[in-house]
Amino acid sequence: MKTSNNPIGIFDSGIGGLTVFKTIRKAFPAEDIVYFGDTARVPYGPKSKNTVIEYSIQNASFLIQQNAKIIIVACNTSSAVALPYIREITDIPVIGVIVPGAIAASNATRNNRIGIIGTEGTIRSEAYTKEILALKESADIHSTPCPLFVSLAEEGWENSQEAETIAETYLKQLLAEKVDTIVLGCTHYPILKSTIQKVVGKDVRLVDSSEAIIDSLRMILPNPEADKIGHDYFFVSDNEEKFYNLASRILNKEIYSLQKVRLRETWFVEKSD
Ligand code: DGL
Known about the structure:
Elements: E1 8-12, H1 18-27, E2 33-37, H2 49-65, E3 70-73, H3 76-89, E4 94-95, H4 98-108, E5 113-118, H5 120-125, H6 127-135, E6 140-145, H7 148-155, H8 161-176, E7 181-185, H9 193-200, E8 205-208, H10 209-220, E9 232-236, H11 240-251, E10 258-260
Parallel strand pairs: 1-2, 1-3, 2-9, 3-4, 5-6, 5-7, 7-8, 9-10
Helix pairs in contact: 1-10, 2-3, 4-6, 4-10, 8-9
This protein binds D-glutamic acid (DGL).
D-glutamic acid binds next to α3.
């Protein structure tokens, strides 16, 4: 493992991973953190598996270049399909959000009926269903994609009447299945947590995988130096200003170090299968 002074690297397709960043920053105040949001190519949810794998490898490579000692894939869509491919290019630990979320959901349910919401890519991969069933064979799992939640979060409309109406439409079926636990299987969704909770009622537990990831991290990271204050470094692939405004709102603080990066790549014609 790289020295404990190297930063933790986090990436997402956009601002969603900031929900994970926020939790990690709070739990590990002494760590330096490098965050990359691929704001030029968000959303990942509707894209094909191969495209998401390709983007995820590029994002992870950037964090490796920044000397990250660990990579947190703060994007469920990437975590669902790309972890083994990222692990092929690096020896540093690579942590996704699906397994911690699945563990938290299996522990949270009381009636064994679990709902999963996520992007189309995450739901199509059935990654949560497989992980939860591996932990709890008897679980009755119902899933549904909620693609508009990503745009609502990116637009800052999480508490609007429109968000509530859309949430009612998306979540009706899960409620009819009497789930008592819903996994927020997209890191953008905790931004809409209060709207979602209002729609599903207070008796349904919402599992936020950004919180679940902390236990996995504690097992890997050594104890923090008591007197050190960690620094944050943010990078995006486009729209710095929009990111700056949303990030400051989500994190409840101004962000100071934000830079735009450009991927240099050669395009080539893909062979058809
Ligand atoms: N925040 C991402 C996730 O957790 C993806 C949102 C998107 O780009 O579609 O899945």
